[in-house]
Amino acid sequence: MARPTTPWTGCWPWRRLTAVWDASTRLAPEGVTVTAVAPGFVPDTAFWEEWLRDNPGLRENRLARIPMNRPGTPADVVEAVAYFASDGGGWTTGRILQVNGGGMLGHR
To answer: Which long-range contacts (CB under 8 A, 24 or more apart) does 48-56 make?
Structure first.
């Protein structure tokens, strides 16, 4: 899994997008939807726990890149997943939902 400080993290989103598009194109005729959720900075998770402990200043660095001025929560991610799993998300396929408080919009 890509870590926040590895050099190849930047190319990883394109691989995910290609995989979602490919699978959704092949499975849509069978009535199967393929979607993904790409969470941003959600510090209250095991993924970030070690990185925050071992990298002083990382939390502030990540927060400075989020236009909504707050980290994400596990509940934010759960709501996105719940949409895709609901009847309302039943006609959505081939999409990756960025749940990141605007963090992909660029730096402030």
So the answer is: 51/3, 51/4, 51/5, 55/5
Half-sphere exposure of 3 (CA within 13 A, CB side): 11
User: Which position has the token pair 């993924």?
Assistant: 47
**Is residue 26 one of the residues assigned to a domain?**
no
Q: Residue 17 falls within a domain, yes or no? A: no
Q: Over the chain, what is the mean pLDDT?
A: 86
Per-residue pLDDT of 54-89, as tens digits, reads 999 999 999 999 999 999 999 999 999 999 999 999
67 lies in which domain range?
34-105
What's the pTM?
Answer: 0.77
Residue (of 42, 24, 44, 20) closest to 97 by Cα position: 20
